[in-house]
TrEMBL record:
It is found in: Cell inner membrane; Cell membrane. It comes from the Bacteria. This is Transport permease protein. It comes from Rhizobium soli. GO terms for biological process: lipopolysaccharide transport; polysaccharide transport.
Amino acid sequence: MLAASKVKNLTEIVSHLRVVAALVVREMSTRFGRKPGGYIWAILDPLAHIAFLSVIFMGIAHHPPLGASFIMFFATGYIGFQFYQAVASYLNSAVKGNRSLLSYPNVAPIDTIFARYILQFATTSVVSITLLGPITATLKYPIQINWLSIIEGALAGSILALGIAFANNVLFQQFPLYEKLFEIVNRPLFMLSGVFYLPDALPHPMREIILLNPITHVIMSFRKGFYTEYRATGYDPGYMYMCAATLLFAGLCIFTSSRRVLRGR
């Protein structure tokens, strides 16, 4: 009996993996199309934001807050932030965007979440390498990359987004007003996460307030991977991991207890 149960569980896992793989291919085709223009735009969009920030602040300050390159500073902040923002934005409508597929019994709502998570994390990673690779190669000084800090920041940011997305896929359907309120609250995060400044350089008590935002620690971790001289005073990986794990657990609880809502029954 136990062996039969294990075989059944393994079969279900393999089935879900196949569904997720098929959904990733479908999402890729739907989002980027079959022409290369979609993939090019995925790179041009962050590049335009980074260039805009660099031009604006080069006109205000003579030196970036860290290092000697404005483009490098804003690229590490913006891309670090995208591991949260891009993932959250794309995943928040995962179930709703694949509603027609949920009529098939072998497609579960959670499969749509994981498919979009895999695709967006991979997309943001490719964009990071495509943009930061040439930028670091053109710097006048050699750079030592700390991959552990970069991976920690990227994973923590994406897991924060994943936990929030699990909850939002339910709450957006149950409470339309909550969706509007979430957009309002989420919009200032770009300004409050240390994308274009160093949180540890802020005066008290603003520094302590900004450091309550876990995305701030995500960006600090990401930047530490490119700046060996960055002390990142106030950076707390334990707090970052705790927030990511708590949101993921809470989101999963809401998601798994709302099957009828997710399937529109």
